[in-house]
């Protein structure tokens, strides 16, 4: 089972529990710690019924949360949210009463904000049905999407996501094949459209650029000017020749070499300059999909 725990009002125990003590911590201070350990829940309930001025619903919720803290087995997973990430742990069965009346359980192996294969559990990348529990007004509750969350923590692919990825991979392959079949002028136009969709502004007319440059583009967002060379086919030596030309052009801050048919690997080029971008057919296919240019491409090849 997966349970959420709020580590204090407003998260006041988060730093202490997660980064220093490796514990879970519960308020509900009362003189009945031993009764909780022994399962004397009727006695505990009477105490909290008095604290809630006879409100049966409130007392019932109090006991539900306190029992979960005392009785949840150590193979259950506890989660909380802290600094933009989901944190999880298993908790040792022993419940300890602190001097201030709060209770703690030790987080076995500490709290973690990573999946078991090392991926960070960023809140932005989690299902909203899980992260919405951050707004829970009480202290402890069960997680509805526990199967999803367990797969996420274990680093296992979600079944529907795996199916979608397989479909997307096939689409990328099909788009690559379409790109390789473009007439060279249409390929140049496609690259121009990609840059335009990415927010780049063309400074030179397509097909009538400066010598050695197919596209001269400018990004008004990052204020960079880019040297773009477009080829249907190329070799490592040819790429290096164009890069040498780029190095002698201080007015350009970036270079893009775009080619749809290249048999080698990026590492064959021997260019490690961070200003240099090499787009092969696989990268171009991703950009076509992301830019919404599939219909344009299909129309050109139909």
Keywords:
five-stranded mixed beta sheet, elongated, 12 strands, 40% helix, 2 domains, seven-stranded mixed beta sheet
Radius of gyration equals: 29 Å
Shape: elongated
Which H/E pattern describes the elements?
EHEHHHEEEEHEHHHEEEHEEHH
What is the residue-averaged pLDDT? 92
Helix share, percent: 25-40%
Explain the overall architecture.
There is one protein chain. By secondary structure, the chain is of the alpha+beta class. It has 2 domains: 2-154, no CATH class; 162-301, Trna Endonuclease, Chain: A, domain 1 (3-Layer(aba) Sandwich), CATH 3.40.1350.10. Helix content is 40%, strand content 22%. It has 11 helices and 12 strands. It has helices spanning 14-21, 33-38, 41-51, 56-71, 128-131, 146-154, 159-180, 184-197, 236-247, 281-290, 294-301; strands spanning 2-5, 23-26, 77-82, 85-91, 96-97, 103-112, 140-142, 201-202, 215-219, 224-233, 254-261, 276-279. The strands form 2 sheets. Strands 1, 2, 3, 4, 5, 6 and 7 form a 7-stranded mixed beta sheet that branches. The chain has a 5-stranded mixed beta sheet with strand order 8-9-10-11-12, sandwiched between helices. α3 (41-51) packs across α4 and α7 crosses α10 (281-290). The radius of gyration is 29 Å and the shape is elongated. The relative contact order is 0.10. The mean pLDDT is 92.
């Amino acid at each position: 089972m997966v349970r959420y725990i709020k580590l204090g009002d407003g998260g006041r125990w988060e730093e202490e529990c997660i980064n220093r003590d490796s514990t879970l911590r519960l308020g509900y201070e009362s003189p009945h710690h031993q009764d909780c350990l022994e399962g004397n829940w009727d006695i505990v309930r009477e105490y909290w019924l008095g604290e809630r001025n006879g409100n049966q619903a409130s007392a019932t919720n109090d006991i539900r949360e306190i029992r979960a803290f005392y009785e949840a087995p150590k193979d259950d997973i506890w989660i909380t949210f802290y600094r933009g990430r989901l944190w999880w742990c298993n908790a040792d069965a022993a419940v300890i009463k602190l001097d201030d009346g709060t209770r703690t359980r030790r987080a076995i192996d500490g709290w973690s904000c990573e999946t078991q294969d090392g991926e960070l559990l960023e809140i932005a990348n989690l299902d909203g049905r899980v992260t919405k529990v951050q707004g829970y007004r009480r202290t402890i509750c069960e997680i509805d999407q526990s199967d999803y969350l367990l797969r996420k923590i274990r680093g296992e692919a979600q079944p529907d996501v795996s199916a979608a990825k397989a479909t997307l991979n096939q689409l990328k392959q099909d788009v690559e094949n379409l790109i390789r079949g473009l007439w060279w002028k249409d390929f140049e136009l496609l690259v121009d459209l990609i840059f335009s969709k990415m927010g780049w502004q063309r400074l030179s007319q397509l097909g009538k650029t400066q010598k050695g440059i197919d596209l001269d583009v400018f990004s008004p967002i990052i204020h960079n000017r880019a040297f773009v060379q477009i080829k249907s086919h190329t070799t490592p030596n040819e790429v290096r020749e164009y890069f040498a030309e780029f190095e002698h052009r201080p007015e350009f801050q970036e270079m893009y070499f775009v080619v749809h048919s290249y048999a080698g690997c990026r590492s064959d080029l021997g260019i490690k300059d961070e200003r240099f971008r090499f787009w092969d057919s696989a990268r171009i296919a991703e950009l076509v999909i992301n830019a919404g240019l599939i219909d344009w491409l299909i129309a050109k090849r139909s």
